[in-house]
Predict the 3D structure of the following.
Amino acid sequence: MGRNRSVGYSNLLLSLSDAIDLANSEIAKHQQRTAYIAWETAKAAHLNEELIKDLFIAALFHDVGALTVEEKTALQNFETADLEKHCIRGDILLRRIPQHERIASIVRYHHTEWKNWDEPIDKDYVTASQILCLADFLERLIDRDVYILHQRDVLTRKIKELSVEHVYPDIIDTFLSISDKEEFWLDLTSPRLYSILNKQGPLGNLIVDYDAIEILSKFSRDFIDYKSPFTATHSSGVSACAEILSRLMGLSDQDIQEMRIAANFHDIGKTAIPNSILEKPGKLTNNEQALVAGHAYYSHYIISTIGGLGHIAERAAFHHEKLDGSGYPFHCYEMNMSTGARIMAVADIYTALAEDRPYRAGMPRDKMIGIMRLMAASNAIDKNIVGLLADNFNAVNEHVSQSQLDARDFYENHLKPYYGNTAPPPPRN
């Protein structure tokens, strides 16, 4: 019997949203908690069903443009005066997903205060952006070390005190209409929030096929890789390498698509690693190396929470495993490594050796092949896959280089301009 080729849409989005907030306990679940506040407020405001869905998705990814751990933490702690750039980057990333234009606009303006709008509140994306503005502000006010009902009155008072210049007054009143329910606050901070949103949330029982999953995996690849110029093309390279090796090995079109998806997801756990480590030019300390070693575990953790993608999680997260059990973080042996996982390990090593890193330049062909053959000889990686790569090196290199060139072009021309201190004023629709 063939494998089920669909997954729950809500389950998929909630897990990808979870990845954005992996970094530390200060920001854990920020996207989901903000989505819960926005969803409850939107229901109380009697917004139409489609707008509620769009607002919910926008809230799940509203900080996707805050690409580094450092930026996310500063936002959460009200430590940055520049709220503009991550909104612009989020808009750019979300517009790469077909039919997400309204969702992108909601994210783009979620820090725009009411006094700065020149559009009427009855425009859908304006209403939704203002609700998201309030929801994000409230969630960041919550002290995670204090029982929520002990701070409810203070939080409610701070929302009441919001200036009409900050949030449209009817939206403040709508939120206050639900704030007297203990259930609202307890659900908001419940460890079961993921389950509540998945089972009861506005996306219901919607399912998506693997074509849609691949599109969303590319979106996740973007917010993973574009954390740093040193990783900006990594996952696109791994995906292209895994794709061509899978084709050379005679895998089916279905398996090849699944390999692309797995490769796009393989480093999703790196969202938890600060850029100060990713971009460090010198040798990592033992503590820093321990943080890096955890990223594949978190990749597995995130992907395996998506029902029906367990096989994708294995292929994605075993990319640092070795056939002799010396890899990490699971210390698998060859009997536990599928063909897909073995291909991914080789694809990741090839791409890493070819890339410029903070501590070294990319390597030439002969040195790369030499290193991988030595690894294969010691039974660290699959010798047959290494031989296949060596025999078809030019074809593999051309395919990978083109994919990375496309990724680099998008990064340089669309996102990099918003990494400095001179973001332009917000565009108007």
